[in-house]
C-alpha cells in the first residue's frame, strides 16, 4: 500500500452527478450528496485536484468537473481533509494499530500455548510408550525367569527329596532297635 500524506485522500467518481457543493470563491466543500456522500466525502474538505489538474478556485473546479462528467469515464478527485477529519483518521489508524498489536500478541500467546500442549502430549505419548515397552520386557523377563525358576525349582526339590529317601532306608535297615533305643516306641505291628 502506498503511504499518502496525512490529510490527502483520493476518491474515484463515475459519470453522472458528483454531489459536491462548495463555497463560492473557494474549493471548500459545503454539502455532499449522491456519489460524494457514498464515497465518504465530508463537508469542510477542500478540492485539491480533479483528474490530475490542480484546482485553485471554484470556477476552475466547476469547469473540470463538468468536463469529466461529460467524458463518460471515471475520474479521480483529490481532497485535502479538514483538521477534524485528519485527527479522526489518525485516531482510527492508532486504534487499528493497537488492535493489530493485540491480535498479534493473542496469536503468539495462543501459538505458544498450542506448542506447549503439543509438547506435553508428545512427552506423554513417549512416556506411555516407554512404560508399555518396560512392562512388555518385564513380562518377558518374568516369563523367562519364571520358567528358569520352575526348571531349577523342580530339579532342586527332586534332589533333596531323594536324599531323605536315601537316608531313610538305612534307618530302616538298621532296624527299629535304634529308634527304640532313643526312647521312641514303635507301634506294634498287629
Question: How are the SSEs placed, and which strands pair?
Answer:
Blueprint: E1 8-13, E2 20-22, E3 29-32, H1 34-39, E4 46-50, E5 53-54, H2 58-71, E6 75-80, H3 83-173, H4 177-181
Antiparallel strand pairs: 1-6, 2-3, 4-5, 4-6
Provide an overview of this structure.
Helices cover 61% and strands 14% of the residues. With 190 residues, the chain is of the alpha+beta class. The protein is rod-shaped and about 120 Å long. It contains 4 helices and 6 strands; from the N terminus they run βββαββαβαα. The strands form 2 sheets. It has a 4-stranded antiparallel beta sheet. A two-stranded antiparallel sheet has the order 2-3. The chain starts with 7 loop residues before the first strand and ends in a 9-residue tail after the last helix. The mean pLDDT is 78. It has helices at residues 34-39, 58-71, 83-173, 177-181; strands spanning 8-13, 20-22, 29-32, 46-50, 53-54, 75-80.
First and last CA, distance: 124 Å
* Rg estimate, integer Å: 53 Å
Number of strands: 6
Largest sheet: 4 strands, antiparallel
Count of helices? 4
Biggest sheet strand order reads: 1-6-4-5
Oligomerization: single chain
Mean pLDDT: 78
In N-to-C order, the SSE pattern is: EEEHEEHEHH
Key structural traits:
single chain; alpha+beta; two-stranded antiparallel ribbon; 6 strands
Amino acid at each position: 500500500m502506498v503511504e499518502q500524506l496525512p490529510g490527502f485522500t483520493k476518491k474515484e467518481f463515475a459519470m453522472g452527478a458528483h454531489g459536491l457543493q462548495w463555497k463560492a470563491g473557494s474549493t471548500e466543500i459545503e454539502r455532499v450528496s449522491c456519489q460524494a456522500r457514498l464515497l465518504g466525502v465530508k463537508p469542510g474538505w477542500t478540492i485539491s485536484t480533479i483528474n490530475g489538474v490542480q484546482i485553485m478556485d471554484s470556477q476552475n473546479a466547476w469547469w473540470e468537473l463538468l468536463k469529466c462528467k461529460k467524458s463518460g469515464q471515471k475520474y479521480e478527485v483529490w481532497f485535502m481533509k479538514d483538521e477534524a477529519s485528519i485527527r479522526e483518521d489518525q485516531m482510527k489508524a492508532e486504534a487499528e494499530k493497537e488492535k493489530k498489536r493485540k491480535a498479534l500478541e493473542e496469536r503468539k500467546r495462543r501459538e505458544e500455548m498450542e506448542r506447549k500442549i503439543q509438547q506435553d502430549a508428545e512427552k506423554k505419548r513417549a512416556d506411555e510408550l516407554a512404560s508399555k515397552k518396560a512392562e512388555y520386557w518385564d513380562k518377558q523377563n518374568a516369563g523367562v525367569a519364571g520358567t528358569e525358576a520352575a526348571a531349577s525349582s523342580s530339579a532342586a526339590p527332586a534332589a533333596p527329596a531323594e536324599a531323605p529317601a536315601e537316608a531313610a532306608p538305612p534307618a530302616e535297615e538298621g532296624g527299629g532297635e535304634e529308634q527304640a533305643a532313643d526312647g521312641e516306641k514303635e507301634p506294634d505291628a498287629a
